[in-house]
């Protein structure tokens, strides 16, 4: 998988002056466009589209300073339909307009070319299993919250704290399959995994039962799930598990993500210092 991602990076570099089709990048990576975007965002920390934009504006910045082409020629060469659109994008990245940059020789920002490599860090193994599940519902309470990478997410904590105990009990009683009991279900609204992006968070159960009208429902179709388990300090070990699934497990296994919620079942110790977690990721087997 890492070799294919580096082929994608090479293709981007040779096509910065023309249209870059995400579907073509997915074909180079031998995976789905959905999985490529999710993998890239998890590994690189920025969305694929944002990386392409920054690389284009990095190259365009060098051409602006070189002065060999007119600003309109530079704009058109890098896919902008007008000098005005190019100027807005240029200023958003570099903090200065292209005309001013050329006149003053301004200091510009640069997005380095990315490549991916495997780093062997130790003897840690990941426990996982593959599960086929029939269609089910995620039923409970939901809120739209920002993604926070480290520490307790205060927006989620506030949302959970606002659910009355009697409502939690009613939700819990609907649980009738794996993963059992109250779970967290996350639906990402974009391919970005950057801090602060919005996602839909469910404090809910997995069930085949009909949901009461006053509860939120997410219908999930039948499919394949990769289930990961770990135990350790809370919430750090859980957040590391999420990271390791995308940076280590997917590049090493013949599976790709598919659309669907990421579901987490957490059982903390009495003082919440540690937790045992089960992370369910919707996947599909890739063609080798």
Low-confidence stretches: none
Radius of gyration: 23 Å
Structural class: alpha+beta
Gap from first CA to last CA: 10 Å
- pLDDT averaged residue by residue: 88
**DSSP helix count?**
10
**What is the strand tally?**
9
Largest sheet: 9 strands, antiparallel
SSE pattern: HHHHHHHEEHHEEEEHEEE
Helix content: 25-40%
Basic shape: elongated
Proportion of strand residues: 25-35%
Give your account of this protein's structure.
The chain has 288 residues and is of the alpha+beta class. The chain has helices at 2-14, 22-29, 33-44, 48-66, 71-77, 83-94, 98-104, 154-161, 165-172, 236-252; strands at residues 127-133, 136-146, 183-188, 198-207, 216-220, 223-233, 255-257, 262-268, 274-285. The chain is elongated, with a radius of gyration of 23 Å. The termini are close together. The model has no long low-confidence stretch (mean pLDDT 88).
């Amino acid at each position: 998988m890492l070799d294919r991602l580096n082929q994608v990076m090479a293709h981007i570099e040779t096509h910065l002056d023309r249209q870059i089709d995400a579907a073509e990048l997915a074909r180079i990576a031998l995976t789905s466009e959905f999985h490529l975007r999710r993998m890239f965002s998890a590994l690189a920390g920025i969305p694929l589209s944002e990386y392409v934009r920054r690389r284009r504006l990095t190259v365009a910045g060098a051409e602006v300073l070189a002065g060999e082409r007119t600003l309109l020629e530079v704009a058109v060469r890098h896919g902008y339909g007008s000098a005005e659109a190019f100027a807005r994008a240029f200023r958003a990245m570099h903090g200065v307009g292209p005309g001013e940059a050329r006149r003053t020789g301004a200091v510009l920002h640069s997005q380095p070319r990315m490549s991916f490599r495997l780093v062997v860090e130790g003897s840690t193994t990941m426990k996982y299993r593959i599960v086929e599940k029939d269609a089910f519902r995620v039923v409970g309470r939901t809120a739209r919250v920002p993604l926070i990478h480290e520490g307790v997410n205060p927006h989620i904590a506030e949302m959970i704290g606002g659910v009355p105990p009697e409502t939690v009990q009613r939700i819990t009683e609907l649980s009738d399959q794996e993963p059992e009991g109250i779970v967290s279900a996350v639906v990402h609204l974009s391919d970005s995994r950057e801090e602060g992006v919005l996602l839909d968070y469910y404090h809910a159960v997995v069930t085949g039962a009909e949901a009461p009208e006053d509860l939120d429902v997410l219908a999930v179709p039948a499919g394949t799930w990769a289930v990961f388990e770990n135990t350790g300090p809370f919430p750090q070990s859980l957040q590391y598990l999420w990271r390791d699934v995308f940076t280590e497990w997917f590049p090493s296994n013949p599976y790709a993500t598919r659309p669907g919620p990421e579901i987490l079942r957490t059982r903390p110790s009495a003082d919440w210092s540690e937790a045992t977690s089960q992370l369910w990721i919707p996947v599909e087997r890739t063609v080798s």
